Amino acid sequence: MERGKLIQLIQIAKAQLCLDEDVYRSILAKLTAKASLREMSPKQLSIVLDHLKGLGFKVRAKVPNQANSLRPQLELIRSLWHGLAKRGVVKNGTESALNHFIKRMVKVDTLQWLDKRKASIVIEHLKQWSSRTEATK
Asked: Could you tell me the superkingdom of the organism this chain comes from (predicted)?
């Protein structure tokens, strides 16, 4: 495991195990004869991490943040909506008008509350609407 990741995990373990500074430093000194993580080699960091796991620290997989994974879709929805507004297809290009449209389409009150499936439905509808209105001009 890379050095930075080991240091990060050790610091998370320290917080989860509620180790005060004195106890934490004594563990470091006892296991590696060093007082700081920066002074340790990756092998020594692994030894410290293994010891903290023995004290009850459990490494958990990072749960992806759904808001971050939806960001590109939400930006595309806004972009399509504003594109329709610039061409005069949508009279009101505001965020509240977009939210009203979304509520009518997929029964979700606001853009930020969309899940991936419903965001895809909105995107496809806006794309189709955009292509229909381009074809008529």
From this structure: Bacteria
97-116 in b/e form (b: 16+ CB < 10 A) is ebbebbeeebebeebeebee
- Per residue, the 3-state secondary structure of the chain, as one string, reads CCHHHHHHHHHHHHHHCCCCHHHHHHHHHHHHCCCCHHHCCHHHHHHHHHHHHHCCCCCCCCCCCHHHHHHHHHHHHHHHHHHHHHCCCCCCCCHHHHHHHHHHHHCCCCHHHCCHHHHHHHHHHHHHHHHHHHHHC
Distance (Å) of CA 48 to CA 11, 95, 107:
11, 51, 51
The tens digit of pLDDT for each residue in 39-75 reads 999 999 999 999 999 999 998 876 656 656 889 999 9
Size (the chain), residues: 137
pTM: 0.53
Tokens of 82: 């504003």
